[in-house]
Structures
1.
Amino acid sequence: MQWKFNSSVYKRVPSRDTAMDPDLETPVRTADGGAGGAPSWRMSLPHVCVATLTSFLFGYHTGVVNEPLESISTDLGFAGNTLAEGLVVSICLGGAFVGCLFSGSIADGIGRRRAFQLSALPMIVGAAISALTNSLEGMLLGRFLVGTGMGLGPPIASLYITEVSPPSVRGTYGSFVQIATCLGIIVSLLIGTPVKDIDKWWRVCFWVAVVPATLQALGMEFCAESPQWLYKVCLS
């Protein structure tokens, strides 16, 4: 009798079926060694790379004026004006604050892909204005527009990467956001190096930023929409 009681106490409860658990970090292996129900990381990698372009641009625009600031201030007529120089450097962060206030509602309203494309638009226009301007006011306007895109894009990138990445590589892909930001800062400093030797080179530095922003806007046309967002839209 005692034996029967003990056996009932320690009887194993069948574990839940985790083969399709979306939060499972390690894919369930099938008998033939394949991953049962786990999507391939190779399929999601291109989508993640396109998404992280916005983080690259965040880093690039953060550092793009460091090297050329002296040339910019001389050409635009505010050399020695420390207040104006400080505004040129920091006004993009003011725009980023405005952009990040609306990033969540925009991503939920029009979808992740369209939100990325919307964030790329002020980055393209703002960088072009900064490259073409001949006045301090034009530079400040361009930098502020770029900042709004900087605020919109990275929060959406973190959200999108989480939603399209397989659980087995979700943490790795999440780190791409910071890696891309650091790469953007490094590239901006490298591109700004010839500014003291080549006249008007600072304009080229801003034109370079148009390229990844355009690539992201176009690349998102071929990327998958977030499954979570599509599911939520279907429910509503």
2.
Amino acid sequence: MKFARSALILFLALCTTVPVHAQSALEKSEALEIIEKLASGGRDTWIPAGTIKAAHREYKAPRTMDEAFITRTIQEKTSDYETTADKAQRSEELQKMYLEAIPFNVRYELSNESSMTSSVVLKYDGDRFHWEVVILSRSDSVTPSADLSGNYMARYFNQDWNSRRVFAWDGREYTIHAVSAGEAIVDASNRLPRVVGGPLTAGVIPWGSGPLSSEDLAAAKIAASEVARDGSRQIELVIAPSGGSQWTFVLDPSKDYAVTSAVMPRGDIVTSIGCSGYRNVGGYWVPKSVAIEQRDAFTNRLLRSDEWDFTSVDVGSPGVEAFKVAFGAGTAVEYYSPMSAKALVYNYSNTVDTGLLLAERLTYAACQDRQPQNCATASLRYATAQLGKVPADSQLGELVDSDGRTTLYDIRQCAQGLGLHCRAVQADVAAFEESLNGCRAILHIPGQDHFVVLDHVDDRYAWIVDLAGDRFYSRTDKRFLSDEWSGVALLVSNQPVTGRFTDVADDALRGISGGAGWSCTMKIQDEYVIPCESAANGYGCYGYFQWYFERWGCEEAPSGSCKTGILACMAGSDCYWEITGGCRVTGVWDWYGMSACN
């Protein structure tokens, strides 16, 4: 059969590069003893904890080169999208972009051939992990044309955005950090599949699990023989699972029966693994190099290959700090919490405790339906707390009128009632560039009827705290702030507020108000998932897992604030068929961006 011949060719390629000098069959009892040892000592990672540094080379073949099939698929996808009334892309602009990108997206998915080299550092303690991937080179046979420039709906691997990424689980939050894009997603609500793999699992034969479990092995046909190769003794183990294809392994008994090669046909795919250069690291046999291939069982066409060179393996369990993700200044962080219906967004800063700000924003969200509050009370609470004065919830609630609004005069009166000094002034951004001299500045944004707190001003940006908004800590170019800010600020301090400012009269303060609304309210994309594709016979896994995030755009509103930026449109991860059976993602997430306010 063509199938058997393909498997035999692969096995010979892996296992007979060294001349066989002698071969003798083992007794059934000897074979079962080996099987029992393997199943009882099985593992799904090379080391139970520690750090692995590795170089990775990967290749992915086109799924098809049938031009007629590709053209037909483009036509079908285009027709389906045009006739779908309830499109996931809500805005006309995004729908147009999506439609224009369909021909490229289909061609990229079906006929792209890619190769990539990367360096990987993975830290693991048995549960938590910190996994960094740095792309060194990448090539794709299908690339977008110039007319798709700026089209966020075109789906291709953007190396500028994905050249350096970190995936981390600290036991509470799962973080996908596209370092080179300056973007991060923090998932505290178990939305994304959380997987760790890479060099930690590459080439590991999961003895004791799935079709290699003790129960399944007991029902399988097993044969073993001793083979002498270049003066070394090896064991050739053949397993024919019940109802499955024959699997062949070559084991090194001098290294606790470590697998040096394996050929595992399953369905339409033959997976072959070669491991070499085993060394004992802290009591665990770990190879220096791993080569993995997946081929079509009927044509022997190479579908995918992965080569790993482990440059360093350390079994010392990393400390808690190793699993924290270090964000650079200005990184846009999108935080998903079960306490908030929408994601919360902030720009990371080295000068502010953004973790504390996040906690305060979550508190605001949790109290949304329990007490009167708005942007004015949120700004007042934050500004006064920075000065050591915290108003009671009842005090803040009294500031919100029947229309949900609060005037700047009311804010000042409440702050003064806490024993603080206040001064309402007319100013400009330049007045706050050097420092706020111990003051906290509450700014009024008239076009949005909104209050925010100015945290600080650096050489380029004004940093804004907006605990009533989804983008609760953000940076705004100083020039843009000057355009949208009225110049009215309430300065709050523990000391008398001095300075050469123009004061704003009380009557004017009574006419300056803010409410609870904001204008990031136009949904432009629904949240949805495109899962991996399983083969019709149940053995095989194809495609690309895609998680599209709910996205919102700015629209006019009576009050509020709205800032757009580049956020993740979608996170995608390759699908693959694992040895134990089943379709899963690699856990290496590719980042795709789009313009949105949330």
